[in-house]
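Cast an eye over this sequence plus C-alpha cells and explain the fold to me:
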Amino acid sequence: MPSPLRALCVALLTPLLLPAGVPAEDRAHLRIERSETPLVYRTRTRHVQEQTIGGTNFDAEYDTTQVAVWTLQKGAKQQDAADGALHWQIENRQLAAKARVGPLGKYAYDSAKRRHDRGTQVGAALGPIHESLTGAFLTVAMTTRAEVNAVKGYEDLVGEFAKDDIFAKQYSFGGTDKGARLLFQEQFVVFPVSAVKAGETWSVPYDFDLPGVGRISGRKLFTFSGVKEQSGRKVASVSIAYDLSIDSEIEAGGIKAAATVTTSESSGRATVDVETGTLRTLESKLVLTGNSTLTISEQTFQFPTTQTWTVVVELLPNDAAGSDAGSP
C-alpha cells in the first residue's frame, strides 16, 4: 500500500479504535523501544523491620544505593524476537550499603571508598555479597511492557554466601535468580496492554515464588495521571499501589524465621518517557504488617512485625556512570 494511502487509512481508523469522546492525543501507549544508548540508573532501597523478640528490641534497617549501567545486548535481536523480550546487560558500577540489626551490630560497605566492614555478625553475612556484586555483570530479560521475565548471573555471584546465613538469605531474597527477578521488577512500571487515558487504572499479578524465602502473592496497581512536557520531552506520570500478602519461611544456620504479612499502606509515583518507554524516576513505599515466629535452639518466639520497603530509582546522565553511588 502506498505510504500516503496508508497514512490516510490510519488517520481514518484511529478514531474508531478509541472510546467515544477520547482524542488520540489524550491517550498514551507505553512501550520500551530498542536503543543503542546505555541507560544509567541510581537505585536506592530501604527496608525497616520493627519487632521485639523475647523482650529485646530487634528492629532492623537495611539500606543500599547502587549505580548501574543498562545496555541492550548487541546481536540479541533474533533472540528478542524468539522469546518476546529485550535482553539487557547490567553492569554494577558502584554499590554502597549499611545495615543495623538489633543487638547484633551495624555494618557499612562502600565500593568507592573500599570500606569492607565484616567486624559484626551482620557484616560477616552481607560483606561477601556486596563485594561479589560490585563490578559484576548480570542479564535481565524484559518484555517491552517492562515485565521482568528472567535474571541470570545473580545466583552464581551470591548463592553460596546466602545458603547458610539467615541474614544473607533474607536480604538477598534467597540469593537466587528468581529472587533477583523481584528485585529488578520493583524498579519499573509494568505498562498496560493497551493505550490508557488520565485517571485509568490497571493491575498486574504479583506472584513470586522465592526459593528458600517464601511466596509473594497479590497484585500491583498503576494509575495513569497524564502527560506533561519536560525539557522538550513528553513524560507520563503514573501512580503506584500494592495489594500483597507474603508468606515467608527462612531457615539457615540453626535459625528458623517465619512470617505472614499483608499490605497495610502503599504509595508511589513514577515518570516515563512516552516516546521511548524509558523510566525516568520512580519512588514507591510498601508497609506490611502481620505476625512472625522465630525458632532458635528449639525455643520459639512469636511476635507482631511491621516491615517497610521503599525504592527510589533515578535515571542519570550517561557521563554519571563512573560517579559515586553516594551514601545509602
Q: What stands out?
A: The two ends are 56 Å apart (CA to CA). The first helix runs from residue 3 to 17. The chain has six helices and 18 strands.
